[in-house]
Write the structure tokens for this entry.
Amino acid sequence: MDAQIPDDSMALDLLRKDETLAMRRRLIGQSCRLFYSDDPVKIVRARGQYLFDETGKRYLDCISNVQHVGHCHPDITKAAAAQMDLLNTNSRFLHDNIVLYADRLAATLPKQLCVFYFVNSGSEANDLALRLAQQYTQHEDVIVLDHAYHGHLVSLIDISPYKFRKLAGQKEWVHVAPLPDTYRGMYQEDHPNPGQAYADTVKDLIKDVHQKGRTVSAFFAESLPSVGGQIILPQGYSIKVAEYVRSAGGVFVADEVQTGFGRVGSHFWAFELQGEGFCPDIVTMGKPMGNGHPLACVATTAEIAEAFTANGVEYFNTFGGNPVSCAIGLAVLDVIEKEDLRGNATRVGAHLKNLLTELQSQHQIIGDVRGVGLFVGIELVTDRKQKTPATKTAAWVVKRLKEEDQICVSTDGPWDSVLKFKPPMCFSMENAELVVQCIDRILSDKEVIDLKLENEDI
């Protein structure tokens, strides 16, 4: 599904790369890190699954799950430009686009999720979901998964172990449940029912919360934990957790900011992988919605929405759901359907996973291959029995892929030992095969180097 590549003349590059980098270091906060910070890639244009630097060199993008249907998709840019030329205004004016878009989203979700709040980012969506849950339950405490990340606002840092463990630490109203990782967690693939076992850890945690004289407001989790290492939740986990949380008076919040809109292929939402009857109380969405345009949303039940309204405080978002954003959102949904991108995610993702599984049998450093659709992870380990994270090797593979093959991949997981793949949904069979061939070559080179070092030691 290779897109037509734009002409070089379309790109305006006014600064040399070294000038751009020098200005960035001077003007932009240094905590805003770049990909490949030692030698950043300067990208000046893109199309489909490809990025182009200032010299015209083409990179295959395995990172940008934000550009969901492909970089600079002509249907998206056309819809954005047409609506921008006609009207863009404060979302508190009455307009068709917001209701038409909400109606289209509602058709993809369980019927209980019928009220929508539009915002500008996944962080805003998760912050609002937290408010909704706490207002509805009239309680504060939240259960989250270990290694979770839900956004950069203060409220979300507080419920993101990935962040708060490096900062002020855990708040008394935040409670951390074990990550349901069947590769290296407490219950693994050989367990007869890991979904139930991990759900019971949440049940036990709820008891601990009650013993402290506190009450749970919400269980908050990504439908497929990403920063945690491209984790696939064991079957039945979310259904049982929702049962326990609701019995305790709380609600279940599914964070679909990274995994929604068909990335898993077989379903439109990743939470649907848990079973046909499963429905969260609140769903948050973001990154893929606008194909790079800032657009996000919270979907919830009428009951929760009514409780939020009943607090007497008006909620408005100046830009959330504006005419241009919703025109783009509608266009994204059209492209997903027109180009059968869910089908593509299913086919290409399965092919990629199969090729990587074959590679696992050839390279001992590949400890695990997991994923669904175009959400795939390869966990590298220095010892398969001990499952020792191969953090340095993962970084080395990423560096070589970028420098030698012009393939952009990144790492995730608690030890940055998981090579993650969340490419644009137009990623092709040929792209998948190229990536695997290059990883095979790089890992083979490492094995030769390691053997040479061993022989020298002897």
